[in-house]
Amino acid sequence: MAPSRHLPTEQNPLLRELPPYADLIARRRLGQTQLTARMVPTIPESEIDPSLLGAFDYAHLRAPLPRGISSGIFKSSPSSYFLMRRSSDGFVSATGMFKATFPWAEMEEEDMERKYVKSLPTTSPDETAGNVWIPPESALDLADEYGIVAWIKALLDPADIPVGAPTDAGPPKEIRAPPKYFGAQPQPLPLPDLGSPPSTVSRNTRSRRSASPTKVPAPKRSVASPRKRRHQASQTSTETPPGSAHGSFDTLVNDETPSQVPIPVTPSSTQTTKMEAVDDEIKVSRNKEPAPAPSVEDESKLKLHCEEDVKADEDGEEMEHPKAEIGVPLYGEIPPPEDAARIIAEAKEMVRVATQAQAAHEEDEAAEGEGASQSKRKANDDEDDGEGTEVARRTKRVKTAVETRKDGMKKRAFYGIGATLAFGALIPLVPYVMSTLGRDNYAFIGLGQMGYQMARNLQATLAPTDSVRIFDINTAAVDGLARAMRSQQAGGAAVHVARSAEHVSIDADTVITCLPEPRHVQATFAALVAATRFPARPRLYIDCSTIDPSTSRAVAAKVAAAHAPGQAHFVDAPMSGGVVGATAGTLTFMLGAPADLVQRVELVLLRMGRRVLHCGPQGAGLAAKLANNYLLAVNNIATAEAMNLGVRWGLDPQVLAGVINASTGRCWPSEVNNPVPGVVEGAPAGRGYEGGFGIGLMQKDLRLARVAAEEVGARLVLGEKAAEVYEAAGREERCKGRDFSVVYRYVGGKG
């Protein structure tokens, strides 16, 4: 049952003065904040890797606040407050919405509203940066109650968001934008109804006619009858087409010009046969004069216009010129389908007759072309006997049917060869394209504090066509994660629950493991290798566990032996960043893999973190992780001893830390995770050494580093002594289960 609540009566008046929506969108910026353990609440007794806490990416819209404000939630007088959206999953800060809307609220009113929002079923359990986060749909509902719907819609708008101006002189930051949300966009307006014609039709629509709807268009040149072949005189005239005056053409809606076909004629008379079909009527006329301009008719009817011009030349020979046109109306009602089909069939028949006449004419030209060589020798005699007769310029030679077929064969051969070469070049890209366009199946084994958050980020960033199978021996963790994945914001891969390691990976292309100890990794992959139902498909195994390099390489060899050659790849990718980085998606992975697999593995790891550092071949990532944590373990003890020394001599811890961090003694334990309470805000020392990177995990990493050193003969002079210190401190009740900086208590430090 949701707790009862009442909203404050006094709201921010500046939020009711809405600027244009485009201005609200333009005000948005991407931001990034360095996270501390205090800003990301973790589970009690959770362990955080302190080497990299990571950063928190978000999008924000600055909401103005009244001047001189002072209330229970605002001790100072800020000029504005951020409406924020989390980049990892697109959730909106309900805390920011409340503070921006009710700036005069008291702490009790904010706590009451916070409890109410947290009681909603869709509210995120992760209170990153101290805020309560809700999905966009819930944010819109809450904004409706607050009266700030326009501001939240602008925050959720899918338009790209620019990165905010950097606050320092360093290089530009890489800030991830939230996933695009389209639920708040307005629906498209309905298309206008063009079924009825407009009240007035412009005069220039009368010439809108399309070409004949057949494969063979209307002839573009004069086609002479095959009755007699004779050259025309050079003096010809051109008949002005109907519907044009002084050479001008009507312009169509899209600034197009109707096709005009000039018809060469002689000064002699012209006889025209004209047949028109308007809806159900077909008219045939034969005139001695050119066809008159079309009269004003109903432009909403489909018109069929066919002409057969019979022209007589100077010698009295007749020449036939068939022509067919169909006028399609721009507006008005289209004839019934059966009438239109009948009219088109009649038009096709008329065009077929014209095409046969043209084909016969071309055959006649081909036959006459065979005797052209014989007529050339009489050219001079004809010129002498002509007594001044002018020889008309020969028209452009028309290709014969055989030549046309040869040209078509050449073009088809050219296109076929080109297509074959292009297809051959694309064959190597087929596996990549298929893997990109197809469905990808993932498996995630190991849902501890780190693995739980990593699997959640992986699922949220995959396509809906992909799938993720999850497994852990803790069935409660599996069921809880599945419910959380399915109830989050729309999007992400499909989620399936498995009850065994074999089941989770049987159809997976990529298997990710995050397990506590080397023995757990060995047992899990022994079960995978023993599976006899592996389909024949390439698989990628990514182990994010922190184990020794030798165990990792032994597991890699067993995996390779259980698959066909080249079908399985095992890589190690231990991470740094702790639960905070896993939750925010800012982990750093140290990858040990062959160079040709780096790009493929990066695509997967960057869905769960920010950086991937390729350290070398398989096993190199674990070697780098253990070397780094060995140095961290030794530096932590040295920092605790040095701080205790200075404090006992009367130095202020803040002053001493400032000297160390400005000098050569500077290190991560002195600057970020200082063991003296009160020196670094948010450090585990300030909250009784709760949370952080547990002393038990440091003992484990130190033990693995010593094992790896013994295998390769590397001397760790301080390793044995450091192990004794952590083991002894871990046995004391006041240090057990706390952050590894608690060794300051063990060496006698005072805070």
UniProtKB/TrEMBL annotation:
Q: Compositionally biased, Polar residues: which spans?
A: 254-274
Hey, which pathway is this one from? Amino-acid degradation; L-valine degradation
The record's comment on protein family reads: Belongs to the HIBADH-related family. 3-hydroxyisobutyrate dehydrogenase subfamily.
Which Enzyme Commission number(s) are on file for it?
1.1.1.31
* A GO-annotated cellular component: mitochondrion
Q: What class of enzyme is it?
A: oxidoreductase
Protein name per its UniProtKB record:
3-hydroxyisobutyrate dehydrogenase
Q: Which Pfam families match?
A: NAD_binding_11, NAD_binding_2
Which organism encodes this protein? Answer: Phyllachora maydis
Question: Where is there biased composition of kind Basic and acidic residues?
Answer: 276-289
Keyword Hydrolase on this protein? no
